[in-house]
Design goal:
By secondary structure, the chain is α+β, with helices and mostly antiparallel strands. The chain has one domain: Hypothetical protein Ta1206 fold, CATH 3.30.1980. The protein is 23% helix and 31% strand. It is built from 4 helices and 6 strands; from the N terminus they run ββββαβαβαα. The protein has helices spanning 51-56, 70-75, 83-86, 96-103; strands at 9-17, 20-27, 34-39, 42-45, 61-63, 80-81. A 6-stranded mixed sheet has the order 1-2-3-4-5-6. A hairpin with a 2-residue loop joins strand 3 and strand 4 (42-45). The radius of gyration is 14 Å and the shape is globular. The termini are far apart.
Length: 104
């Protein structure tokens, strides 16, 4: 079997403040990249991920849509989140970086 890798991927360890770090992944896809960030108590993702399925799985998950890079993602407003993420005081419209800090 031959495996071809024709998509580029970035993995970044990011200091989000207060001594907290997250790991973020960006995979080039068409028409937009797939972006995922992992924090200690949950995760955040772009519109490629189904927030309703995350709710069913009882994950602490946060979403922002319409972003094209990790940098844009961190500054984007939260557009959706699960009930478990809400326990960390996540709110729609807050900056994703703030939401990830609360999940860290």
């Amino acid at each position: 079997m031959t495996i071809l890798y024709n998509h580029s991927m970035r993995i970044l360890d990011i200091d989000i403040g207060r001594g907290k770090r997250i790991r973020a992944y960006e995979i080039e896809l068409e028409p937009a990249p797939l972006i995922l960030a992992a924090a200690r108590n949950g995760w955040a993702a772009c519109g490629w991920f189904d927030i309703n399925l995350a709710e069913k799985k009882k994950a602490a998950a946060v979403q922002a849509v319409g972003v094209n890079s990790i940098e844009e993602f961190l500054e984007a407003p939260v557009t959706g989140f699960t009930a478990k993420a809400g326990k960390y005081r996540i709110r729609k419209g807050m900056r994703m970086k703030t939401a990830l800090l609360r999940l860290s």
